Amino acid sequence: MSLGARRTLKWRCSQLAGVYGVLHRILYCVFEGIRLSKVLEMILNSIVDAADVVDKAFEILIQSVASRLAGLEKRLRDMIYGISNANELSIHLSGDVRKVA
Length: 101
Hints:
By secondary structure, the chain is mainly α. The protein is 97% helix and 0% strand.
């Protein structure tokens, strides 16, 4: 084999090795990307699940606060009604006392 043929063969082998290296890197990146995309998908699913849990917790908290406020409103209404009834009774009794006196 002549020197020129050897150089050509060596050059072609280095070209093939370079192509193989590039293909290897591309495939590695593709498979690594697939693996990373699965990891990212799992992370995003976890974030969505956590957001659902937080959303449900806030919904329960809001319902609890609304229920307590409704109970407080009823108690305040009863107190105000009781105070107004007591005032009416007091006025009524004071009127009766004056009549008796």
